[in-house]
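Students often ask why inverse folding is considered easier than folding. One informal answer: many sequences map to the same fold, so there is more than one right answer. In these notes we will look at a single instance of the problem. The structure comes first.
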C-alpha cells in the first residue's frame, strides 16, 4: 500500500449555489423492485447455512473473515452480482481490507478517533471496517447490506466471531443490522436525517444527529446505484463534523463506476470536500483508493 500526502481534490463549496441533485437524473433502465427494508436482529443468525471463519492478516493486525456458499444462500453458483437480487455481499472484496488498513493507520497517526462515535457501514458484507470500529470503542456501529440473507448468514456470524475473539466491544456499545436498498433504508436507520438537505439537523435536546463516521468499501461500481448512495450519505452524515471513509477502485470495468466517476458527481453537487488517504497499486486489480469526504471542508481529526 503506497501512502500519498493527503490532498484536497475539490475546494469548499461555500461560495457555490446549492445545485441539488437534479444533475443525477438519467434515462438508465430501472432495476427490479428492491426487497423491503428491515432490521435483522442478531438473534436471527442463520442456523441452516454454515459459516466458517479463517484469519486474515492486515499488516500485523488480524481479523476473522467468514466464508459461506453463494449457491447455498442464493442458489447462485459463484456469482458476484445479480442486480436487484444479490449485490455481492458474500464475497470479501479487496477494498474492505484496504479500508481497515487505512482506518488503522489514521487511528495510529492520531488523525482519527472512533471511540464513542456513531458509525455506519454501508454495503457491509463481511463487515470488517465496522468490526474494526467496534474494537476501537465506537458507541454505536450499524451494519447495512442490500440482502438480509447476507446479514443472517455472514455478517452477524462474522461480527460475533471477531468480537468474541477480541473480547470486545464494551458491553455498552450498540451493534445493529439493517437490510435494504439505499433509496429506502434511511427510513429505518436510527440516526438518519429526514432529508439530505437538513445539514444542520439537531435532536430535540440540542445534540447533533446523524452518524459521526460512515464507512463503505466497493460500493460505487454501479452508476445508477451511486445516486441513491450519495443521497443516503447526505441523509446519514452528522453535521458539521461527520466524515465518510470510502475504499474503491478507480474504474470498475464493464459496469462503469469508480472513484473518478464518483468524485466527479460530488464535484458537480459541491456539498462535500474529498481528500485521498492512500492509493493501492499491488497488481492484484486495477488501482484502488481510500478516500475521505467531509462536509463544508471540515477535516475530522483527533485532537
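Output (designed amino acids):
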Amino acid at each position: 500500500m503506497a501512502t500519498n500526502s493527503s490532498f484536497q481534490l475539490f475546494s469548499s463549496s461555500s461560495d457555490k449555489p446549492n445545485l441539488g441533485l437534479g444533475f443525477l437524473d438519467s434515462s438508465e433502465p430501472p432495476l427490479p423492485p428492491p426487497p423491503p427494508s428491515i432490521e435483522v436482529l442478531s438473534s436471527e443468525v442463520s442456523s441452516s447455512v454454515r459459516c466458517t471463519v479463517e484469519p486474515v492478516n492486515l499488516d500485523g493486525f488480524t481479523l476473522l473473515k467468514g466464508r459461506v456458499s453463494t449457491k447455498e444462500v442464493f442458489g447462485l453458483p459463484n456469482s458476484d452480482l445479480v442486480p436487484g437480487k444479490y449485490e455481492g455481499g458474500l464475497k470479501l472484496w479487496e477494498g474492505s481490507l484496504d479500508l481497515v488498513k487505512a482506518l488503522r493507520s489514521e487511528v495510529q497517526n492520531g488523525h482519527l478517533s472512533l471511540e464513542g462515535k456513531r458509525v455506519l457501514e454501508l454495503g457491509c458484507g463481511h463487515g470488517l471496517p465496522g468490526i474494526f470500529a467496534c474494537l476501537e470503542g465506537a458507541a454505536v456501529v450499524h451494519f447495512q447490506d442490500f440482502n438480509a440473507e447476507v446479514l443472517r448468514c455472514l455478517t452477524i456470524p462474522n461480527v460475533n466471531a471477531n468480537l468474541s475473539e477480541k473480547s470486545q466491544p464494551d458491553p455498552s456499545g450498540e451493534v445493529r443490522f439493517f437490510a435494504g436498498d439505499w433509496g429506502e433504508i434511511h427510513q429505518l436507520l436510527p440516526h438518519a436525517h429526514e432529508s439530505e438537505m437538513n445539514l444542520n439537523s439537531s435532536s430535540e435536546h440540542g445534540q447533533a444527529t446523524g452518524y459521526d463516521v460512515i464507512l463503505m468499501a466497493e460500493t460505487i461500481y454501479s452508476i445508477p446505484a451511486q445516486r441513491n448512495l450519495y443521497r443516503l450519505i447526505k441523509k446519514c452524515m452528522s453535521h458539521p463534523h461527520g466524515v465518510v471513509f470510502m475504499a474503491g477502485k478507480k474504474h470498475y470495468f464493464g459496469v462503469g463506476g469508480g472513484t473518478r466517476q464518483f468524485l466527479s458527481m460530488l464535484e458537480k453537487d459541491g456539498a462535500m470536500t474529498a481528500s485521498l488517504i492512500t492509493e493501492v497499486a499491488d497488481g492484484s486489480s486495477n488501482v484502488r483508493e481510500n478516500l475521505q469526504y467531509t462536509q463544508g471542508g471540515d477535516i475530522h481529526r483527533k485532537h
